[in-house]
Amino acid sequence: MEDSYEHVDPTEFYANLDKMVALAADASNAELVKELFGEIEDELSRTHLMGYVAMNAVHIDVTDQKMAEEYSYTSSIMVQMLDRMYTALKQVIDLPGGSLVKDSLKEETVEGLRGYEEMTPAELALYEEENELLLEYRAKQVEAGAFTVDVNGVPMGYADMNTALTMGQIDAMTYINGFIELRAKKNAYLGEVYLEMVEIRNEQAELAGYDNYGDYMYASYNRDYTQESIQEFTDAVKEYLVVPYYYLSLVSDSSAECLNVPYDSKETLAVIQEYIPEISTEMDEALNYMLRNELYDLEYSQTKSAGAYTCPLDYYGAAFIYMQPHFSAYDFSTLIHEFGHYSELYWNDMGWENSLNLDIAEVHSQGLAVLFYEFYDEIFGEDALTMQEYSITNLLGTYTQGCMVNELEMFVYAQEDVTLDQINAKMAELAVEYGLVSADSPVLAYYAMLWCNISHIFEQPFYYISFSTSVAGAFGIWEMAKEDYDAAVEAYLNFAGLGFDYEFVESLEMSGIGNVLEPESVKAVGETLMEEFELEERIAALYGGAEEEPAPEEEPVPEEPETVLKTCHVRTGDTLSKIGARFEVDWKEIAELNGIEAPYRIYAGDELLLPEDAVIKTEYVKVEAGDTLGKIAARLGLDWRILAENIGLEAPYVIYAGETIGFTY
Fold it and tell me: What percent of the chain has pLDDT over 70?
């Protein structure tokens, strides 16, 4: 996609704006003014496209510093171009020759232009500073992966410490202290950038007339709820969904083979293509257009960043899906999720007059995912229930994480001169409150620093709550589907058909889904989950009585971290039970040592502490002709960066056919 990128020069764009204002002074120039405005809109759309091309290129190759700089530049130019255009249009709509331009705009656009205030030099300067910090953050993310700390006079990273511990060169306490020191070093390195961002963003909010940056961002996201009102929703999530989430996590078979096999992207696209026509002919049209033009990047690459997203390509009247596969069931559900975004962007004009409502956009994706449950029996056969429980569990996890991150951000921007220690302490408190870890866990410090791994906190502040609210909307559709699938499909399509012209709750109510943010709605979902999956009965059968099952916060944790002698990294497709089998230890011991509680989620690349009696063996793989480190890592389900560090291989990461690579992972 980088091949289609062109550096943006706004000189002609600005000249055309000045020309448009001058022509608009004469009523006889109305047609010329409208024609010139069309050219201006076209150039703005092209600039917007270049921004997304640069963004995609950066995600496809995280080492491409040139494109990272272009992405930063284009993002900055786009803001300046919009500001200049709004300022020019504010004049044009009230000039004699601007009548046709005014008539072509939406009423709310004209009203907004009349109240628009040109960005001040101070506002532009703050935006540039924020953009520079974002560029610095992305670079530091990569640098942090190669950090070392001094261990007995020797610089060591994670892999070095693992090797030294296994070979008996350092003792357990030295290892643990080094582990914590390295985590803290990364936290401080990225945290320093974040604190600067917070300071700048608070200044931005103040210049915009807001007392709190959170309020400023909620308004910019066009939300019809406030920080105060969403706290009621968050409290309801804690009260009514924690138990069903915990129970479902316990009874679900997270080690099932169907969850841990690679889902080929082409095969998944074929499945989507088979069933989408049963939901909507319009969505089928969007899918076929996407497939014909290959508007997606779904294959694994060692240079790609993790994650998935869909971005608009309005200049071409289309959109683009990006995904780095996990080689598990996650890829299947993620691709359906992203196509929900794609279809909506395909059918909706996302030009400068229209703004994307994040909460609505996420319902488009989450809602489509739950509608696909109807086809799970045909798609997965005897694995259908396992796949559905997996998906529902992930949705519930999104519920809680979205609320947790939002609470952290609310805390950060409510403090005066917030410190890194305060942020870490608050994160530790929330991790305990949301059941991620016990308060007396020896790895609580790790969870206190987890927020640094969430890129949205740095790049898209206050975004995360939209994941929670949209899951609430998806569950509203799911509850309807259980009673009347056709009615649920109709409600979903009605919701999608409204586009982004209405507010979130208003759109839900207009489409018949209802206000899912009300505490009673959250409570109803919790009750439905308990009944639908017979959670009390299954817990009773599993533990001999639901009343005997300890609450999440009472999970036993190790009191003697000195007994932990070894570590491993999680592979793609790993579960705790698989890791336990690989190292010949009980998976529950691994969970306890790492403070991992139900639903026992682990992620590829995570580093886990192992019990003292874990059996660590060196694994070997022979390099074949045409192999790269990334290809080998992908076959083995490993993170190529961690593998490179493990075997002591540095850039340009050259390997040779015939050589044998030995590693512990």
Answer: 95
